[in-house]
User: What shape does this take?
Amino acid sequence: MTDKTSRAAMRTLAALLLALAVMLVTSPAALAEEGGGYPSANINVHDQASLQRGARLFMNYCVGCHSLKYMRYSQMADGLGLTEKQVMDNLNFTGAKFGEPIVSAMPEAGAEKWFSKVPPDLSLEVSAKGADWVSAYLKSFYLDPATASGWNNTVFPNVAMPFPLWQLQGEQVAVMNPPEDGQAATVKELKLAHPGGMTPTQYDQAVRDLTAFLAYVSTPDELPRSRIGAWVVIYLVLFTLFALVLKKEYWKDVH
Assistant: This one.
């Protein structure tokens, strides 16, 4: 093997290692968010405290209607650094066993009657729509007496779901643009008419935590992958160096 060929092989190997490193540290959720056009959710799925707060919010305000059927309580405990007792005492309100999936206690027949459709499972919500969309959605509910639930949403117009976090954020009202050319009036902006139990800054953090938790649920392998990925890259680099030294030793007497 000539020096020129060896250098070309090294460049190719370096490019492959760089591509592998990028794939290991880039999350599918982050890729799904590209081009969404919504403000950044600013989440960090490696912030364990944020994930724990998000899990508490989900279990207190969301699991009554929505399931996470691809996530088990035991798996959540492992990923969030919680014990079985902490999960079962503080985050399990459905009576499920520790090894069972997180499934809403709401019967499907009742959901169909009350909401005209069964609330969707949210296991893959961030993967499907992106964290930025989910964050914007949770901040965009406003009072609308024209809807069956009394609520509407600028990100998801005419959504059938009532706003589950209104006690935290408060009640927003829409400031409308005047109708033009026979078109219906559109929402210009949202204003907080009646404050909730949180300040706007606190609510922003709550949405960030809840979105981070749903992002973790969408790609639970991201946490161990990120931990293991760096060691895999280091191993490949060391193995490559060893292979090059071994190659030179074998080929040193070949002309």
Remarks:
- The first strand starts at residue 68 and ends at 72.
- The CA atoms of residues 239 and 245 lie 10 Å apart.
- DSSP finds eleven helices and six strands in the chain.
